Amino acid sequence: MSPANIVSFALFVSYFLEISAGPIGRAQKFLPQIDRKRLFTKEQMFAGFQLILIGFFKKNIIADAVAPYVDQLYSSPQNCMNIDLLCGMYLYTLQIYADFSGYTDIVRGISKLLGIEIMENFKQPYLSRNINEFWRRWHISLSSWLRDYLYIPLGGSKKGTGRTYRNLIITMLLCGLWHGASWVFVAWGGIHAIYLSIYRYIKEIFKKKELIDQTKYSFTKSILSILLTFHIISFAWIFFRAPDFTMAFTYVYSLVNMSNIGYTTSLILVTIFYMALVLTIDYPSYKADRELLVTSETPWFWRGVVYALLILSISFIGTSYVKPFIYFKF
Amino acid sequence: MSSHLYILNFNIINKMQSHTKVIIVTFIILICTGLGLSINRDSFEKLSNKSYATPVISYLDLKKTNDSKVIFLGSSRIFSCIKRDLFSRLSGIEQSKITILWSSGAGTWEELLFCRKNSDLLNSSPLVIIEVGPWMFNKNLFPLGAGETAFLTWSTFQERLEFPNLKMRSFLLADYLYPISQRRTLDEWDSLIYALIVGKRPKIYNPDDVPEWHYKQSAYEKIAADPMFSVRTQISQLNHYEFAEYKAEYLKRLIKLAEKKSKNIVILQPPLRNEYFEIINSYPELFSAEMSSLSFIHSLENKNVHSILWERPEDCGLNDSVFVDYGHFNNNGAYLFTQRLFDKLKSLGLIK
Predict the structure, then answer these.
(1) pTM greater than 0.90 (yes/no)
(2) What is the pLDDT of residue B52?
(3) Complex-level ipTM
(4) Rg of chain B's alpha carbons, rounded to an integer?
(5) Could you report how far apart the first and last alpha carbons of chain A are, in Å?
(6) Which fold would CATH assign to domain B51-147+204-347?
(7) Cα A116 → chain centroid
(8) Are B104 and B80 in contact (CB under 8 A)?
(9) Which of A303, A312, A318 sits opposite B22 (nearest CB)?
(10) How far is A22 from chain B (nearest CA, A)?
(11) Is residue B167 within 8 Å of residue B192, measured between CB atoms?
(12) Helical segments of A210-259, H only
C-alpha cells in the first residue's frame, strides 16, 4: 500500500461517521475509497436509505421501547420475580443489540450515500450457533481489531495450548476493559473468555475423538445451538448492564432463587413480541447471507412494501422514553 | 385501448425501471396510510382521550339535539364557579337546560371548537357565556389552551395555515397531509386497536360530574400553607407576554358564530385571588399584559356582546375565602359567585 495523502489520512482519522461510536475503521479499506473517484448509483442510494431506515427501526421501535422495562428491572432486581428477571435479561440482550446495530446501520447508510463503504459490524449475532461464531458476528470491527492487534501479536493459537488460552483470556479481559474502567466490564470480558475457552476445549476433544463433524449442523442441532448460545450471551450481559458487582450478583441471585418464582404475563408477552420482531428483521438477511432485508433481486412490489412499512413504523410508532445510544459512552 | 385510457395500460408500468416502481409503491402505501390515519384522527382521539377537550367532543357528538337555554364555555374555572342547581332555581330554567362545557386549560380555540363541533349548540340557547382570562391571549403560551392534541386533531386547514409561528405552521401543515402527530407507542396502538375491535369507549364528558379537586380538603390545606404557590404558577403563564392576534381571532369567530344566531353573548372573567393582582401590579410587563387583554375584550362589546370582567373578588362582593387556589372556587364560593353572576346578568337584562 502506497503512503497515504495527508488530507486523506486526516479525513480517515476524523471521519465524522465513525468517530463517535465506530465501527472501528481500517485505513487499508478506507483510504483507497477516498482516493478513487466515487460514483453515486441507484443501488447505493437504495441500500443506504434501507440501512438508515432499518437503523431507525431498531433504535426507535425496539431499543427505546424495551428500555423502560430493562431500566425498571435492573433498578431493583431484589423486588422482582425471577421469570420477570429472565425477561429483563432477554430484553437487555435485545436492547443492546438493537441500539448498537441500529446506530451502526444508520452510520453505514449515511456513509453509503456519501459513497464510502464502512465495514459491516453486526451479522445477526444472536443467530450464532456457538460463542466463536458470535464473536465473528458481534461488533466485528472491534473483535477483528482485537484479533489482529492483540490476540495474534500475543502469539494467537500458534504457541501451544496453554499460551492460546492465556492469549484468549487476556484479549477478552481487555475487550471488557475497553468498554470502561469498571470491574463489571472486566467480569463480562472474563465470562466471555471462559465461554471461548470452554468452547475451544470441547471442540479440541471432539476433534481428537472425531465425535462429530464440526462443519455440519442439522436443523435441530442448529436450533439448540442457537438457543444455548443466546442464553449464555444473555447471561453475560447482566454483568455488562449492572452498574456494579453488588447489583449484578443481586440480579443473578434473584434470578436463580427458587423461592422467588413468579411472573408478569404482560412482560412475558412483551419479551416474546420483541424477540419475534428482532427475528423478523434478522432472519431474512441470515437466511440469504446478506446485509440488507431486500435487494435488487427482491420483486419490486415487495421492496416497495418493505420500504413503506419501515417508514410507516418509524413515523407512527414511537416512545417518549428516548435514550441516547448506549455505545456513546464507551 | 384508447389513448385517454393510456394510464390504465399496464405496459406503462412494465416499461418503468424497477427503482421507479419501488418508489411508486412506497409512496402509494405511505399516502394511503397517511390519509387513512388523517381521516380517522378524530375517532382515534375519541378512543384514547389524550386531550382534555376530547370527552366534551365525544359528548357533543352523541348529543344529537340541544335545548340549552344558557351555555357556559370555558376552562375548569368556569366549572368551579357555577352551581347549576342554584342558577336553575334563580332563573327558573330547568337544570338540564343549563349547559357547562369545560375542559382543563381550555382557551379560546377550544371554546370555538365546542361550538363548531355541535352546530345545534347555539341554535336554541339565547345566552352564551364565554370565560376568558388574560393568559388565554399569550402568544408565547402553547398550548392553544388544553394542549396540542386537540388542535392537531380538530383544527381546520385554515387554522393551521394561519398559525403565526413558521416552524409550527410548517409542522401543522405537514401533519395535515401525513399525520405524524398520530405517532403512538406500541402499547397505545395496542389499546387503540383493542378498543376499535371491542368497541370499548373511554368515559365521556358528563356535565354533572364534579372533579375531585373541587371538594378536596388537601387543596385548601395547601393554599393555607402557601397561598402564593398557585398564584405564582398561574402568573407564570403570563411570562414573555405577547398579545396573540390569532387567539383573539378565535374569540372573534366564536362571537360571530353566536351573533349569526342572534344570541346574547357575555364575555366573563371570574375574579382571581387578591395575591394575583399584588404580583401583577408590581411588575409593569405583567400589568400591561393584563391590560392588553382587557382592552381587547372591551373592544368586542356591542349591543349583543357584553363583558363582565371581574378582577378581584371584592369586585363582586366576595373575598379570598371563596377560592381553592389562585382562581378556582370552592363549593361555598361557587354558590356565592353564582348568585352574584345571576344578579349581574339580571341587571344587564340578559336573564329574567
Answers:
(1) no
(2) 83
(3) 0.77
(4) 24
(5) 31
(6) Rossmann fold (3.40.50)
(7) 22
(8) no
(9) A303
(10) 29
(11) no
(12) 219-241, 245-256
